[in-house]
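Quick one, tokens below. Sequence please?
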């Protein structure tokens, strides 16, 4: 990718700006090895010199990343692969990351311990160094990709989505590309495990600041785009690496608490992926989708031998799963058949009504307002743990040096269900039916004119999404021991609910495979770790979605197909634009001047 530089936001010579940024990052790094406070009352024990801990480690990681990115701008051999998309804007975000993390740490120490007097010299050194690095980074000229036409059609930017930038790095052999993908998922597993294992709020907020701005820096450097090109080239390897990394997660946890968070994230993400079939592929706005999750959960609870079950039967797990999925499928067809002839807002209102009808109905089937089937607002408690092929999911199991707790057992089971849902999503999205769904999403009238049976395919998408949600619900019932109507609201304080599921799809990226997993992980993990946000999470999520729609409407994980189509169309419009002759300048004569003056 060819780049050119524009004027820097800060009037500073580029060489001086790069030198100051390097110096500031190095000073920040040195400060992390000094004590930041004199007392261990602040969590993380930042009193030890020569041994960073807690927030110091996050600042250290950010400083190392900033140094590597800024040094690559000097043309040091072996570092050019770090910045295939440009060296300057990535440095700016990395420097802002260490300033944000260090500034937050200093502010938290000052607030919790009662004044700046509790700060030791190490905190001041790191704060001063990060401030110098951040300010000086704005003296670096901004990198901008050119829009020159590519010989093969399109623009350089569009082609850089699928191929490495020319002239920056030679193409790797296939085995090396596979190793890079495996290493990337290994790093992702470590980062996720570190974030979920944070023991106190201050460390988790610092982790969010470091991870968010650090990822943005890597994105601006072009590493994310290059990795995306590799994963697109080796799709099966990527999926296998992702499943292996997810399989290893419970073995990194010492307690069942964090494994339970991981299990709930998988349930949330799997249901969001099913909703992505309806919303992302077919373009049907479903505001009552969580009801299908409830149908699967209640069905599984009724046929799994729960003591409060009105049916009184005990199916094996495979039969309970099939029963929950089939009942959800039937409900999807019954609700979709009379309503899918509607479009847009009207369909959204109908699906919202279905979600509320489901919740009210199961709340009233208590023997007083209706038949005694669901035990009303008390729900169905005491759902027994699973026993699959002699494996007891309710007890801990030792696997070599590792111990798998009850949540870890259900995590692995849910991972198997997730793999099935991913397979269904991939196969359906890449099939002829999936392409027809996309056509209906883009323009239903045009798709119908081309011979596509829009109603039948929309009903198929609705039924498939309901089945996948019911499949996840059968596992959720056993994980939570109980099912109640309050778990399946349109909007509530505890996900999954319809609003959070839709937000996960939009936040992650509609129509993508990994987008719902990213969105679900963020929307579940942040409230779970930041308990003080419970009363304000709907407000904060609303603000986050507004900002997302303003600055990244395609979501955190963009649909590559839509990106390529957009940039190809943009290149074609630029190429086919007719030449407009420049206006002739009037001759500078005395008469003209006199006439203008008159």
């Amino acid at each position: 990718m060819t780049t050119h530089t524009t004027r820097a936001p800060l009037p500073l010579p580029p060489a001086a700006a790069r030198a100051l940024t390097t110096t500031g990052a190095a000073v920040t790094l040195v400060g992390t090895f000094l004590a930041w406070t004199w007392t261990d009352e602040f969590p993380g024990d930042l009193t030890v010199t020569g041994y960073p801990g807690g927030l110091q480690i996050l600042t250290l990681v950010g400083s190392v990343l900033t140094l590597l990115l800024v040094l690559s701008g000097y043309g040091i051999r072996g570092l050019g692969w770090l910045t295939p998309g440009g060296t300057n804007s990535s440095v700016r975000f990395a420097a802002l990351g260490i300033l944000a993390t260090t500034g937050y740490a200093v502010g938290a120490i000052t607030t919790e311990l009662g004044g700046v007097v509790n700060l030791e010299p190490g905190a001041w050194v790191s704060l001063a160094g990060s401030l110098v690095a951040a300010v000086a980074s704005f003296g670096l000229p901004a990198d901008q990709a050119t829009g020159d036409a590519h010989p093969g059609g399109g623009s350089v930017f569009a082609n850089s989505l699928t191929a490495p930038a020319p002239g920056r790095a030679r193409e790797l052999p296939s085995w090396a590309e596979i190793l890079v993908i495996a290493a990337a998922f290994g790093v992702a597993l470590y980062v996720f495990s570190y974030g979920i294992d944070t023991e106190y709020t201050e460390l988790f907020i610092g982790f969010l600041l470091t991870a968010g701005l650090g990822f943005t820096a890597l994105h601006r450097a072009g590493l994310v785009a290059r990795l995306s090109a590799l994963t697109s080239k080796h799709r099966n390897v990527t999926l296998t690496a992702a499943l292996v990394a997810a399989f290893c997660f419970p073995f990194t946890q010492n307690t069942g608490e964090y494994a339970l968070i991981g299990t709930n994230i998988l349930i949330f993400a799997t249901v969001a992926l099913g909703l992505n079939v309806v919303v992302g592929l077919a373009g049907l706005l479903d505001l009552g989708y969580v009801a299908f999750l409830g149908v699967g959960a209640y069905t599984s609870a009724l046929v799994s031998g729960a003591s409060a079950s009105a049916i009184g039967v005990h199916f094996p797990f495979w039969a309970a799963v099939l029963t929950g999925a089939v009942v959800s499928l039937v409900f999807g067809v019954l609700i979709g058949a009379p309503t899918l002839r509607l479009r847009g807002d009207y369909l959204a209102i109908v699906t919202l009504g279905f979600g509320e009808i489901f919740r009210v109905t199961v709340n009233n089937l208590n023997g007083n307002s209706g038949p005694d089937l669901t035990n009303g607002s008390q729900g169905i408690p005491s759902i027994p743990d699973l026993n699959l092929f002699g494996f007891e999911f309710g007890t801990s199991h030792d696997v070599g040096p590792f111990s798998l707790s009850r949540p870890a057992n259900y995590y692995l089971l849910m991972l198997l269900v997730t793999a099935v849902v991913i397979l269904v999503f991939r196969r359906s999205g890449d099939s002829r039916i999936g392409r027809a769904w996309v056509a209906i999403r883009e323009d239903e009238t045009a798709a119908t004119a081309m011979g596509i049976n829009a109603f039948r395919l929309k009903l198929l998408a609705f039924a498939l999404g309901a089945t996948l949600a019911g499949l996840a619900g059968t596992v959720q019932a056993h994980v939570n021991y109980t099912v109640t109507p309050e778990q399946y609201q349109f909007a509530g304080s505890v996900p999954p609910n319809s609003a959070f599921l839709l937000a996960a799809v939009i936040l992650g990226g509609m129509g993508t495979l990994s987008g719902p997993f990213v969105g679900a992980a963020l929307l579940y993990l942040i409230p779970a770790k930041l308990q003080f946000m419970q009363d304000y999470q709907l407000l904060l999520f609303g603000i986050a979605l507004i900002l997302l729609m303003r600055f990244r409407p395609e979501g955190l994980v963009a649909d590559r197909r839509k990106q390529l189509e957009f940039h190809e169309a943009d290149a074609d419009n630029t190429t086919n634009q007719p030449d407009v002759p420049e206006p002739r300048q009037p001759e500078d004569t005395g008469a003209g001047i006199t006439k203008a003056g008159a």
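The longest helix spans residues 454-480. Strands lie at 3-5, 143-145, 387-388, 391-392, 397-399, 402-404.
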